[in-house]
Description:
Number of helices of chain A: 3
Radius of gyration of chain B: 19 Å
Order of helices and strands of chain B: HH
Largest interface: A-B, 45 and 24 residues
Mean pLDDT of chain B: 80
Number of domains of chain A: 2
Pfam families (chain A): Sortase
Keywords (chain B): Membrane, Transmembrane, Transmembrane helix
Protein name (chain A): Class E sortase
Structural class of chain B: mainly alpha
Helix content of chain A: 25-40%
CATH architecture of the largest domain in chain A: Beta Barrel
Distance between the termini of chain A: 75 Å
CATH superfamily of the largest domain in chain A: Sortase
Strand content of chain B: under 5%
Order of helices and strands of chain A: HHEEHEEEEEE
Organism (chain A): Streptomyces atroolivaceus
Structural class of chain A: alpha+beta
Distance between the termini of chain B: 41 Å
Shape of chain B: rod-shaped
Largest sheet of chain B: none
Helix content of chain B: 40-55%
Oligomer: heterodimer
Number of strands of chain B: 0
CATH topology of the largest domain in chain A: Sortase, Chain: A
InterPro entries (chain A): Sortase, Sortase_Class_E, Sortase_dom-sf, Sortase_E
Low-confidence stretches of chain A: 1-9
Low-confidence stretches of chain B: 55-62
Mean pLDDT of chain A: 87
Strand content of chain A: 25-35%
Amino acid sequence: MAARTEHEERTDERVAPVRRTSRHPVATAVSIFGELLITGGLVLGLFVVYSLWWTNVLADREADKQGNTVRDRWAGGPGALDTGDGIGFLHVPAMKNGEVLVKKGTDTETLNNGIAGYYTDPVKSALPSDAQGNFSLAAHRDGHGAKFHNIDKVKKGDAVVFETKDTWYVYKVYAELPETSKFNVDAIAPVPKESGVKKAGRYITLTTCTPVYTSKYRYIVWGELVRTEKVDRDRTKPVELR
Amino acid sequence: MYGWIWRHLPGNAWVRGFISLVLALAVVYALFQYVFPWAEPLLPFGDVTVDGAGTGGAGAGR
């Protein structure tokens, strides 16, 4: 029967290539089903392209724009903490991703701009300038700038530097948690006991999703402030970033 | 389906090919601009915070 259909098709094409009338309905149905499957596959493939490439293009563009706005505001030289368009830039040399603008809030719209956000919910983050507390941040692992993509490259002892308008805050990573539940809110507690510390101090916590390309679990990196440096006229970078 | 579209496009093979290309690009544009941004928050690939409220899975948005 298949051969017959094929034969008919070929005859059809030769005689009247524009109209095919004598195709078996089952053959038509199978053909349409096949085309739908191919289409579905293409759409899923495009979604991967969108997620892993296009959102990065958009987010990096937006992050550059917003970062430049902040740099422009800072152009007058060092001054008091300015939270207008973002509180500062995160530098993690081990992640090799340059500087990441940090703004308030971890909602999707904020993070999708290719920046990192500090938590306001469920546990309010401290600011680096606070006498003690936990400066907790989140950013995307993949897509939308993927600013924390290389979080697994950050090891104990690595430097994490946060740059504000007037101060460099130099943190040192002292613990990491490669996999935890998204319900593990204690990870960003003011004193993150899970990381092994007991006393109040000036901590930084980076959170993102893991494994890569999914968000089944969360990846946590903790650091503790080791020193601060005043920003000078030329914005000389601390030794960790040179 | 695609055969049906092809047969209903006007012009010769070159014109049809060109129109097909334009149609395909329009579809890709619509997907990237409207469909994917809409679908993405519904899928559990981009939740990075520890607050238990992932947008995927239980569908607990904020």
